[in-house]
Specification:
Elements lengths: L1 H4 L3 H9 L6 H14 L4 H9 L4 H28 L5 H12 L5 H16 L8 H15 L3 E2 L12 H7 L1 E2 L1 H14 L4 E6 L2 E8 L2 E6 L5 E3 L1 H10 L14 H19 L2 H19 L1
Parallel strand pairs: 1-2
Antiparallel strand pairs: 3-4, 4-5, 5-6
Helix pairs in contact: 4-5, 5-6, 5-13, 6-12, 7-10, 12-13
């Protein structure tokens, strides 16, 4: 490792130049050496890509950069989980960086802050909880025009928070995440609920509990509707279908959606990679 750690620019340039060698063993050896250098080498590889006119070299550099960035994403995801998975936005951002490695957490944070500000301008703490939720619904779904992405329900973009914030269209869980993050910034006890085939939210404080469906413009419903929903699916009632779930469960479900999206598109390599991310998250339950 010491030898690779101390490579100078000329030696790195020489390594990159061997990426179009006809001998696959040589290429494999070069790729292994570059990978061993770690993520600090990414900017250099990007520079070489920009200055290369060889499509073979460019493609191999792209693959190397992706592999290095993916390793970094997995390390960060592992650390997020190990530190208690307390920051949902950070967990969603890490999923986001799989597809958009240059995306900054600060960018997502600012966009959530802007939605929060829009709601805060009209918000009143002394309103009844249901009226507070109706006000939140009015701003998010009427004023800001967020809504269900029914046309492209299985698009991978529905699991990417930056895409949902930009297009204002998402799947149930991505819309719920944005809604929850804003609600919690307002001090409201709104949490995710892991229903089968549908992700919803619950407002839960003391004796007050009701449910919210972000995929249906914030429709408010009761425990009775969940009972009926489970009966229709021929499922037995279970606490997890009524009570708040953890951030780790939310991120795991987002990753499962992403796997499903890529399976439908035939992206076998991406399916395998996202499955690696899911294993990191789900390992918590086996410990």
């Amino acid at each position: 490792m010491e030898e690779t750690d101390n490579l100078n620019n000329n030696e790195l340039k020489a390594l990159v130049s061997l990426l179009d060698d006809d001998d696959t063993e040589v290429v494999q050896h070069v790729e292994d050496r570059i990978m061993a250098l770690g993520t600090y080498i990414i900017p250099y590889l990007e520079f070489e890509w920009e200055n290369s006119f060889n499509p073979v070299v460019q493609k191999r550099i792209e693959e190397l950069v992706h592999s290095l960035q993916f390793e970094l994403t997995k390390e960060k995801l592992y650390a997020w989980k190990a530190q208690g998975a307390s920051d949902l936005l950070k967990g969603m951002w890490l999923v986001n960086t799989y597809q958009y490695p240059d995306l900054e957490l600060e960018q997502l944070s600012k966009e959530i802050e802007q939605i929060y500000y829009e709601v805060w301008m009209e918000f009143k703490q002394d309103l009844h909880p249901m009226d507070q939720i109706k006000l939140l619904n009015s701003v998010i779904f009427n004023k800001l025009k967020f809504g269900a992405n029914t046309k492209n329900f299985h698009s991978p973009g529905n699991s990417m928070l930056n895409v949902v914030l930009q297009t204002k269209k998402g799947n149930p869980i991505s819309l719920c995440v944005i809604y929850m993050l804003v609600a919690q910034k307002l001090g409201l006890p709104v949490y995710g609920v892991n229903l089968p085939n549908l992700f919803v939210m619950t407002y839960k404080k003391g004796d007050v509990q009701f449910y919210i469906n972000a995929f249906n413009r914030g429709l408010i419903f009761s425990k009775k509707e969940i009972d009926e929903y489970l009966t229709n699916l021929r499922l037995s009632p279970n606490d997890r279908f009524y009570e708040p779930c953890e951030n780790i469960d939310i991120v795991a479900r987002v990753l499962r959606n992403l796997i499903n999206s890529h399976e439908k598109l035939g992206h076998t390599e991406k399916v395998a990679e996202v499955e690696e991310m899911l294993k990191i998250i789900e390992a918590k339950k086996d410990q």
